[in-house]
Specification:
The longest helix is centred in the middle third of the chain and has 20 residues. The radius of gyration is 19 Å and the shape is globular. By secondary structure, the protein is α/β, with parallel strands linked by helices. It is 38% helix and 19% strand.
């Protein structure tokens, strides 16, 4: 396997560790990040510009698998940042067989707390979610055009080592915001890595929700983490009167329960962290939350 990882960030790095490809090229926009990630991959700078794409073309030779973890551009001319400048070069690589695109369950928008699956209507309102829907379609169409599989992996709220309720409690940044009826799904970064692995192994194409089994109120998750740590949880705060950034508040404007059956039946994915209680108990026992 020669892997091309567009956007070698938190989730893509976990996938890289699990896949252990023979050869890997990764991209980032920052020279400092490229230097830090150099032990993991042949790093290249890429910001979506034609100039960066031209410099990247030689590194695509012989690529067999592509992992895309770059946020799309927003606005009327937004969408995926890779295909507008590299579709022709990628299509020319006849070795390319499989693509995994990391998206978000945010594309579903608000469903008033109802269950959604991959057949559910997308009701995006935010610019970032509208751009995601467009980027998903672009990658699926590209795969159809060149005969490569494209798995669009719609991820729920990501957590894992260094990014979780324990860390927030330890740093004093944890909050228990209460909005009646509000729930969120979550996904451990190791389960994201497993989903990427399964998508490549099966050659599956289409939409897949990659999420835990149990959507839950966010304040309950914070309280459980505090219980495991043996610390007092932060006081509950009314969402309506809490001071929040516009982006943080926008997340609470979307309420849905996301089903993951298709990822189990078609990808054969077995979730190591099926709900927040099992995940937090394991992370605390192992010390893997740090």
């Amino acid at each position: 396997m020669k892997l091309m990882a567009f956007g070698l960030g938190y989730s893509a790095t976990a996938a890289l560790s699990r896949l252990a490809p023979r050869e890997v090229v990764g991209t980032t926009r920052s020279a400092a990040k490229a230097a830090a990630l150099a032990p993991l991959a042949e790093m290249r700078l890429f910001d979506g510009s034609p100039q960066a794409a031209e410099a990247l073309r030689p590194a695509l030779a012989g690529v067999t698998h592509v992992l895309v973890s770059i946020a799309p551009a927003e606005g009327a001319d937004g969408g995926d940042r890779v295909l507008p400048v590299l579709a022709e070069a990628l299509a020319a690589e006849k070795s390319l067989v499989s693509i995994a695109y990391l998206s978000t369950v945010g594309v579903y928008g608000d469903h008033d707390g109802a269950w959604v699956d991959e057949t559910s209507e997308c009701r995006p309102k935010s610019a970032r979610s509208l751009a995601r829907v467009k980027a998903e379609s672009q990658w699926l169409a590209f795969g159809d055009g060149i005969g490569a599989s494209v798995a669009v992996l719609r991820l729920s709220g990501i957590y894992g080592p260094g990014r979780n309720g324990f860390v927030n409690l330890a740093e004093g940044s944890a909050r228990r915001l209460v909005k009646p009826g509000q729930v969120f799904n979550r996904i451990h970064v190791d389960d994201i890595a497993a989903a990427v692995e399964r998508s490549f192994a099966t050659g599956a194409s289409g939409l897949f929700n990659i999420t835990d089994d149990e959507p839950a109120p966010p304040q309950d998750v914070v309280a459980y983490a505090a219980e495991l740590m043996g610390v007092e949880p932060p006081p509950e705060q009314d969402f309506e009167t809490a001071e929040l950034s516009p982006m943080a508040r926008s997340f609470y404007g979307e309420n849905k329960r996301v089903a993951n059956l298709k990822s189990k039946s078609e990808l054969g994915l077995s979730y190591a962290y099926p709900n927040y209680r099992a995940a937090f108990a394991r992370m605390w026992a192992e010390g893997s939350w740090r």
